[in-house]
Structures
1.
Amino acid sequence: MEGRCSARAATGKPLLEVNNIEVIYNHVILVLRGVSLTVPMGGITALLGGNGAGKTTTLKAISNLLRSERGEVTKGTIAYRGKNVAHSDPTELVKSGVIQVMEGRHCFEHLTIEENLLTGAYSRRDGRSAITRDLDMVYGYFPRLYERRKSQAGYTSGGEQQMAAIGRALMSRPETVLLDEPSMGLAPRIVEEIFCIVKSLNEKEGVSFLLAEQNTNVALRFAHYGYILEAGRVVMDGPAEELRENPDVKEFYLGLSEEGRKSYRDVRSYRRRKRWLS
């Protein structure tokens, strides 16, 4: 499947531009330190790093969901299509084409799968026929959701809930999707299936993706470009293919070295010095 589903290069113009942002929680805790990244039109951009690196905070800074957690962007700019959106209302950002799929497969558990999908179209005003057409499109990409469309979401599998969360986002007709940890807690086969669907949505529907992911190996196979975060700052970035071949990335994030695959204990010992921490 790797050969069929690897990503093609993206050459679109900048769509989302994050420039040197800092994020502080509770007025004292500095979480992001000078993070900059660009998502091109028609691209899949990966935001990589371990737990606590700042990936989710970066996505929430873009989608303006920090205030509910007593966080705020204190420096830098966030622009979408050239317009500063750092302090925009999240609802207005959704209307402009940016939507976030939250970490943890958030669904309305008491609603059916189809009802969950339809909540994504709540803000649309283009008529029932257009919504029905997009619902059919979502079922085309996620045939398993069609099979479970009358099932209560709380009784479906983790993979089906993740598909429903992505499908619900698609029902808002987004231009850019911020996808947070899509592989979390899922079996490798389901992860591969979801990433292949993301790739198809990117290529066939023109949806741009910024995905935060700990599974560096999978993410770099599907992304066009990647940024690696550590301790709230970008320590490395580049085309996905180049990052996959980078010795530091291989050792610290893929568990490989010149000697071959390493054990988790070997990786944690940091035999290769992290040059960016010196």
2.
Amino acid sequence: MYEPTIWQDEVVEYPYRYTETENSDGTITHTPAPGETLKEGTPQSATNFNHMENGIFEAHQTSAENTRMIKSQGEKLDGIVGQTIEVTLTNSLAYPFNNSQTTVQLDPSLNTKDYTVTPEIVSVSGGAVGEIEITDKLLNGFKVAYTGSATEVVLKLYVRGGV
């Protein structure tokens, strides 16, 4: 576990005082003249700075691992919760014929075709539903139809898995 360095400022009698020396080449050298040191500060050393760098690196690594774990848990949760899609199917043919098949798009697309689609009938008009058929599963969608004589069926489709 990282233990922070508690940095202390050096406190001197005259923090911004310098002596000035004229050099033989016409330049001037300023030399700090702080007076008495009233309080020692924390040394600015490679040891202290590297300790800080190591702490930053450890925090970065921990953050990256936490991000990876959150993403992993999110993918698992997506597989459990899934998508809910409401779709209206219509049939304009007389029974026993039926043209209700429609394509349902998944957004976002899934990673595998190993997913389940559970239909729930919301409403029915003009006849019986018959069977609900889910076919042609792809990563970005599937087809759904009913086999009965109804003219319109509204379905709620629960898509789970595929992550």
3.
Amino acid sequence: MLKYTTKRLLYSIIILFFVMFIIYTLMYSMPNNYIEQKARELASKPGAGKSYTEWLADLNAQYGMDKGLVAGYFTWIGSALRGEWGDSWVWTIPVTEEFHNTVWYSFALGLVSFILQIIIAIPLGIAAARKQYGFTDYFTSVVSMICISMPTFFLATVLKYIFAVKLGWLDISGMQSRDYMYLSDFGKFLDVAEHFIMPAITLTVISIGSLMRFTRTNMLEVLNSDYIRTARAKGVPEKQVINRHAFRNTFIPLVTTLGGSLPGLFSGALITETLFSIRGIGYASYESMVQGDIPFIMFYLAFISILTLLGNLITDLLYAAVDPRVRLS
């Protein structure tokens, strides 16, 4: 297992090196308008101390834009490995500080959605497989197709109309109420949690459809196996057949799928956070992309790349952990 883990980790590091090079190439190929605009902004501030030309040269040197593609990449990757990502042009603070200020909101939102997704989708998928071609199966299939097909912005608009406009139970967007500063610590927590209800529902609804169908498909495959028919022929109770034999083997692909999605809890939900004005990492990245915040964009793309590779690594390791045939091969 140690040899397998080391091998997969080395592969991930090599892939990350080339992915980071692609990220830098994309940024290097962008028009210089963003850098020139930032240089003009810095030069026009009171007490700037430098001219536009000097600021432009400093910004280009900071990210290796003046050294050519390959040499510039090694300059940038060297700074990144030292944790020097620069200051965000939009948020006017270090990129890592803005990341720390926003990522935990995204993590909290993603974690709640992840837990609800497991609680809802897996039992419904198993129930649909047990009652194949019955009412439960058809109902689950319809619900899952609706969830998969429903656009995020449409669902968010419907939730806002019902809970904010018609019922007036929740605020239409944002993370805090007007009297937030006058609340106790526990009251502040409840206030923020209240603003996360609609975003959490949105993320859960658009996510449960695919997991529901995945669970149903794998459960059907296991229930049609020879050893399941043998267990039933021997008179094993149906509940024991499902819980002890069928679900244990269905759990293998589910573990790898859910394990691979764990790093995604930190990546943020760009569309959902933007629609509800939740200042998570997804919302911050969207604002940075719109306004040409090159330092934050480069950091966010590198962060997403690391999460993707980490998700694949976790998937491989979990599959090897639950299936001995992978380790032996």
4.
Amino acid sequence: MEELSLRNYAHLGDAVWEIFVREYVILKTSSSKMLHKMTTDRVNAGFQADMLNFISDDLTEEEHELARRARNLPIPVGRRSIQNIYRPSTAFEVLIGYWYLEDKERLEVFYKKFRSTEFFS
């Protein structure tokens, strides 16, 4: 498979992350209000930046390089005021998208790590 652009990995990673979160929260409640809150609490730039920080020590050199390149992508004008959150969030989405397409076993390793933390309790 031809390697995608970092933006394309991020675009896919955003969707994959949201599905992961939604699959998780539907097991926690059937309240539509709580489903929405639990999802939006975890599918946002700040939370995703925190998740990148959380997994940082477990990344390989190649994954660190991928995240570094993603953090250095040009920032859309509307997001420049929050670039300290937006940049690592984008890097996180790139990693999720990359693992989804290139290494689902590695993605599952991190899914297990996410599920086992207080972030997902």
